[in-house]
Specification:
Blueprint (H helix, E strand, L loop, with lengths): L2 H13 L2 E3 L2 H7 L4 E5 L10 E7 L5 H12 L5 H12 L7 E7 L3 E6 L2 E6 L1 H6 L8 H9 L3 E7 L2 E9 L6 H10 L3 E5 L4 H11 L3 E3 L6 H13 L2 E5 L5 H6 L2 E5 L4 H6 L2 E3 L6 H13 L4
Parallel strand pairs: 2-9, 2-11, 9-10, 11-12, 12-13
Antiparallel strand pairs: 1-13, 3-8, 4-5, 5-6, 6-7, 7-8
The chain binds adenosine-5'-diphosphate and magnesium ion.
Amino acid sequence: ATPTSIMVGTGRGAEMGVLFRKGEALQLLRDAKVVAVDKTGTLTEGHPALTDIAVAKGFDRDDVLARMAAVEAKSEHPVARAIVDAARKEGLAIPSVSDFASDTGYGVRATVNGDRIEVGADRYMIKLGLDVDEFSDTAARLGNEGKTPLYVAIDGRLAAILAVADPIKPSTPAAIAALHDLGIKVAMITGDNRRTAEAIAAKLGIDEVVAEVLPEGKVETVRRLKAEYGSLAYVGDGINDAPALAEADVGLAIGTGTDIAIETADVVLMSGSLQGVPNAIALSKATIGNIR
Ligand code: ADP
Ligand code: MG
């Protein structure tokens, strides 16, 4: 492509809210064979809400919710906000905590009124040596509904299973259809539960799902998909997406995302919608054409 066609292309992109931070990205996008996307905040709104809670025998629902909210008040994770908001909305008094610690990709823990409280994914409970079988049917049902199951343990005893749901952005289905029309595969990479991820992917017609990925695992997954497909674009919004954005042939950040994602990306989608991705690829094909 000539410098002029790249200038024209990046100018056209800016008009549609697609900011090319590197001219090279416009050329590379033309060859993208797969678009790998983060789930939370990219396909979904990124603001989950509490939908379900079931307590184990001997535990009080409001007490469990209040104490887990106390722990989550110390966490920045979107799941944490869902729990805290639910407890506040119900007018529950949220106690103070000590010894807060976060185990990234697993969950969080703290001491509340002398009791040890742990909140997180099933793999967190398993890591702590707890048996989650009691809730396995409930967890499967919640996952199949596209909800994320979470567990709470109090002093080493499983106290409750909960679920949060994060709505899909209204613009996501059409964006995925547009990528398919361009002959591009879509892969989802997420730290979320496998069933949950698969339910959402099925609803959206996503071609490949890589779930329960630990934060460090996103880059590795990008490397593997790149080798498999040839050329890969990655779309994400979070702090933990930055390494994957850097590893991709082209990294695209959601404009409403974190500063680190935006700074690492080659392209910024100002609208905050996935539709910017097929728009950018179509623009690349139109401006770069087949001239090498
Ligand atoms: P993602 O951003 O894709 O959800 P993470 O690695 O941040 O991936 O989290 C993976 C999983 O770990 C979450 O889906 C959730 O089940 C669990 N988790 C992480 N942080 C928390 C938290 N503060 N409270 C409860 N669960 C958490
Ligand atoms: Mg995200």
